[in-house]
Amino acid sequence: MPKRKTSRQQAELLQGTLDLLILQTLVPGAAHGHTIAYAIERRSEDVLQVEHGSLYPALHRLEDRGWIASFWGTSENNRKARYYRLTPKGRKQLADQTSRWEQTVRAINRVLRPVPAEE
Amino acid sequence: MKLPRFFRREQWDRERANELETYVEIETQENIARGMTAEDARTAAHRKLGNPTLIREEIYHMNSLGFLDALAQDLRYALRQLHRSPGFTAAAVLSLALGIGANTAIFSLLDQVLLRLLPVKEPRQLAVIERRGFTNTSNFGSGTISYPFYKDIRDGNQAFSGVFGRFLVAISISYQGQTERLSGELVTGNYFDVLGVPPAIGRTFTPDDDRVPGGHPLAVLSYGFWTDRFHEDPAVLGRSILINNHVFTIIGVSAKGFDGVELGYSPKIRIPVTMKKEMTGFFGDYWSLENRSAAWLQMFGRLKPGVSLQQAQASLQPLFRSILDDEAKQSPLQGRERDDFLKSQLVVQQASRGSSSLRTQYRAPLALLMAIVGVVLLIACANVASLILARSAARRREIAVRLALGAGRGHLVRQSMVESLLLAVAGGGVGIIFASWSIRFLLGFIPSGDGSLDLSTNPDPRVLVFTLAVCILAALLFGLAPALNSGRFALASTLKEQTVAGGRGGMRRVLVATQVFLSVLLVAGAGLFVRSLVNLRTLDTGFQTSHVFSFSIDAMLNGYRKEPSVRFYRELLERVRAVPGVDSAGIGAIRLLDEDDWRGAAEIEGYQSKPGEDMQQNFNMVSPEYFSTLGMRIVAGRDFALSDQTGRSGVAIVNQAFVRRYFGNANPLGRHLKLFEKGPMAAPEIIGVVADSTYTDIREDRPRQVFLDFHQHDDPAGGTVYVKTRLEAQRVFSALRETVRGLDPNISLFAMRSLDQQIDRHLSSERLVATLATVFGALASALAAVGLYGLLAFHVARRTREIGVRVALGASRRSVAWLVMKEAVALVGGAALLALPAAWGLAHYVSSQLYNVPRADPWAFGVAVASMAVIAAAASYLPARRAARLDPMSALRQE
Q1: B697 touches chain A (CB under 8 A)
Q2: Which among B22, B48, B58 has CB closest to A57?
Q3: Of B210, B490, B773, B880, which has fewest CB within 10 angstroms of its CB?
Q4: CA quadruple B825, B830, B835, B837: dihedral sign
Q5: pTM of the entire predicted model
Q6: pLDDT tens digits for range B272-285
Q7: Of B632 and A74, the one with more pLDDT
């Protein structure tokens, strides 16, 4: 049980960002869960350590919202794998969320940065 | 969450498992490529992924609706439980089906007779507009108005968006070589428009179809008639049919489902009111469209939106007063009569359900029956509750185990309620089938017009909603107490002990006592109603009812008028009397004990009436041999004779009540009456006195009656022929049909029945109540007996050891049996003692439905007590026998 609790908390913590990361990962094309997990890990230069399992509920949630769609395909080493791709709705969502994220980051940065000499 | 995914969660989960498996394999491959051993690679892959079961569970939960999930689980569990005890399930479902079915059937009837709105546009705006008080008119039905009066109101009112009139007539129609007598309706041209009833095909009337008297021979068929007789053939449009020997053109068929504005009367054909003379010419010129003194139209209006009944009535008053003034001026009314006339009223009443005398007649009986079936349902619920308690006693150990394993008491209660609901719904389903069977049977009790009532026998959506509500209510009634009880016992001791489970069954005793209590109420009530019916049925009507048959005939509808009509009826009676096996026959204008009546004022030679004295008499017009056929004794003077012919001076026979009232001990023979009749009948001489008899209502005291001579009337319309014969019904009827066919094959006979059947029809609502009360009383008693039996059997099982000890110590078989009987006697006796005063108290509310039966009728109450004794005996027989035959050795070894 305790394990599940932490995974929930983690999910809550990351909810918005994890969704954003998954969507971004799918921009180049469809991918399966394993690829997505490693892509996120790699592109964040291993800073964002995601428990790969927690990816799947997130994928499920995104699919429920209609931002991504899934299909069964064959993996690079000839294995049956579940592939996910962005839907048009997901693409729009990604654009919206990215710009909101950037706004937030800018705002936070402005607060954190030492007061510049403008004034 | 997508709902479809909820229902295919299992499959979804399997896919997720596959997906995770794929991850592990890919990761394992890559780990091996990184140089790990196969085993390490797999372990590392799993570590990286996390716990797959938790992940799947998380996704599974995302796909769940909590309550639905729990409900589905409870339902499955309940189904399993019910399946495991088929005897219990069958008994419970059957009990409930009887209770719910009875409620559905009676409600379906009650709904159609009392509650349902007319199937027209905005039925709540409909109102009936009636004229009340002294109207100085001859009235055809109460509250009716004349045609000129209708036009005044139609054109002068402010409150209604439309006002229409209607009048029911019996008509004879001929088409495709057949002649048929059926009910028609004369309607004003705006009838369909104001009601908002569209045509199914063709068109309905417009005000233009109703302008010139005699100028619109058009007919609109009802949908039902079109279906029955013309098989929905659209080619009927434009076709000609003969109605009362006049050629009419069919212009349309009215919408499906619309039967008319009066319950129990569904006219098959509607005709513009301007064709009145053609349809009812035989009424005489008095009843013409133009005569203001002839009130026959029933008037309806559609209220303008936002206008209330009171406002409408108020707004009509100035118009009504001015019409009254005009009418008073044109009439010779004077003095008090004039004052009374000016005091008469115009009343606006709700007509969203149409108008109906049937409704008034059946309101109280149906409400009563609804109460009775409500009680039956209570008894059925008590039965089921008691069954559930018995079963939950047997399931104590199982429940205890579940409690011990951590099941919440709330969960147990919920589960028990789901089970109850399931039982109730199953019972309701079977009950609906019972109901649709029994509605057919019930409808047989409600006569109307000349046929039986056109009511639907299939439960419709309204009724189904009611049934569902009853099911839920029932489930709450029988399920809640056992459910709450289910989690309430000492856990540890139950788990430890191995004894036969079950407490003292205190709650079950209360339930069985309740059943007995309610059964006593129903049986005593049934006794009262049966007594009342017997009283009515054995009332001396003043005429002989056995071996007397009757049929009605209306030659006027086939064009017989004046001379031919007079000849027709003489010939008819002659031929009927000549039928082998017929002792005597006579005709009367009024059908006895039916809706017919004929009342009018008479002046009596030698009698000075006081001002305001009621000089209204009940009239009939009968032929020679009428009295002897009906076994009515002529106490003075003579019967009518064929020699009293048309044109001769008029003769009349009065009854003893008439003589008592107006002549006392003086001799009435030879005196004359002065009547509002034409020709020789205007001043007939009293030639005979006949014994008293009932007229239209068997419950009323025998009224004063004046009989005129049927054969003296110069234009007889129709009547009812009474035949005395020793032949059996079927042979009489076919012989009579044959006879009439020989006279004129186009004339139809109707209302063919024995006089006993006529009385049964007349007492239909009493018969309905008495029969159903008896059926339900018996049903209730049977349910109570089953309940009692269950309780006693349970007691014997629980006390097996004790009884074994008693027997071993020398108790006699009889005393052991008495041990069981005692229980039954105490319980039933106690409940019955409580119930009798309650029954007496409740009888007060039905006393208006009873005829000559005291509230504490010893007969009815005696039957109730006796039937409870039978119940106690029947229910305790088997358990007592089992106890008495108990083998002490095996009983003691049982533990």
Answers
A1: no
A2: B58
A3: B490
A4: positive
A5: 0.75
A6: 999 988 887 666 66
A7: B632
